[in-house]
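hey
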């Protein structure tokens, strides 16, 4: 298997890669901005990886030293300013992290002979059309979408996976799932005209493993997606699988369709996504102690 370095160990996708890639046979190291001691409450999440704390992804010299010492075959960039974070409104920070960093990594990795896998987003599109292909021009109107589009890397040894994810978080509550779990005992809106084609973080980790092992020469920008589902139907699946006391109300006011067409990737790799019920059932069975981690984060 491969020697892998994960940038952004504490994020929604990063921490799940830390859990899953070693189980799939890879030797993994991972970086975090916080110190290793500050991450002790989450030691269970990182017990199978070599955790490197105190790494600011914008410190290019430290980043280069870290990559050189880790000597990975593959670097996976999970660092990003997400749309829901207040920093997403800061042009200097958003452009620095979402746009410039991936290209710096491409240069560093190219010089060291390391393959780069960068994670992009369906938010490079406005959502007015849906069923977007790689040939569609990015029409995002907000800073987040534009900054992520500018950060998409291609060329020799560089692979960008354009997608979206849903999953548990170590401490924050910025994503759809943690927001929904926070509505236990209450009512939550589910948008019937908001179309989604992402993955659970569990399935995304497996897809990345597949790309590493079976498709070492895959380069450029590729869309990876599941079958379309409305946010209403998705939340109902989560509620039922996790046995949550949440009344999901159907709302039609929001209309947005950022669905991605991944026919090109499927034809190239033979990948077929699992059904949404299968992915959500697996998510509900995840035995990772998230409630303990979240209590530790709050204390």
């Amino acid at each position: 298997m491969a020697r892998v370095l994960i940038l952004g160990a504490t994020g929604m996708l990063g921490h799940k890669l830390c859990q899953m890639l070693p189980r799939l046979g890879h030797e993994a190291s991972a970086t975090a901005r916080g110190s290793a001691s500050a991450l002790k409450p989450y030691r269970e999440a990182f017990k199978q990886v070599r955790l490197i704390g105190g790494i600011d992804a914008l410190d290019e010299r430290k980043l280069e030293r870290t990559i050189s010492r880790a000597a990975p075959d593959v670097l996976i960039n999970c660092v990003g300013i997400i749309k829901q974070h207040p920093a997403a409104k800061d042009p200097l920070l958003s452009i620095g992290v979402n746009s410039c960093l991936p290209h710096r990594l491409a240069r560093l990795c190219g010089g060291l002979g390391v393959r780069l896998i960068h994670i992009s987003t369906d938010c490079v599109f406005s959502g007015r059309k849906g069923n977007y292909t790689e040939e569609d021009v990015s029409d995002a109107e907000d800073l987040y979408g534009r900054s992520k589009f500018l950060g998409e890397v291609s060329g020799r040894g560089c692979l960008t996976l354009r997608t979206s994810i849903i999953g548990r978080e170590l401490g924050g509550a910025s994503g759809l799932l943690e927001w929904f779990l926070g509505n236990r005992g209450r009512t939550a809106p589910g948008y019937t005209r908001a179309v989604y084609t992402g993955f659970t973080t569990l399935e995304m980790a497996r897809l990345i493993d597949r790309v590493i092992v079976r498709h070492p020469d895959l380069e450029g920008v590729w869309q990876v997606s599941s079958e379309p589902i409305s946010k209403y139907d998705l939340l109902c699946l989560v509620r039922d699988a996790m046995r949550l006391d949440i009344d999901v109300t159907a709302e039609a006011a929001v209309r947005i369709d950022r669905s991605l067409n991944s026919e090109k990737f499927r034809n190239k790799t033979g990948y077929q996504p699992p059904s949404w019920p299968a992915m959500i059932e697996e998510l509900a069975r995840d035995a990772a102690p998230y409630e303990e981690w979240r209590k530790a984060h709050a204390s």
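The radius of gyration is 18 Å. DSSP finds ten helices and twelve strands in the chain.
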